[in-house]
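Section 5: illustrative case.
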């Protein structure tokens, strides 16, 4: 199976609590991204993971 067809692992670490910006303090996804994750294709999941990386790098 290639990287493009392989299932994308959820970033959830089971520390589920949203901050004032509606972002989970555990996985750094927005509430909408968490909801969307369950039905999103792998390409969209990789986009969400990239957005998470950007959020984590901001002070």
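Designed sequence:
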């Amino acid at each position: 199976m290639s990287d493009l067809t392989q299932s994308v692992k959820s970033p959830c670490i089971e520390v589920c609590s949203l901050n004032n910006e509606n972002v989970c303090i555990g996985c750094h996804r927005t509430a909408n991204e968490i909801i969307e994750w369950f039905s999103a294709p792998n390409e969209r999941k990789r986009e969400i993971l990239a957005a998470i990386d950007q959020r984590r790098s901001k002070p």
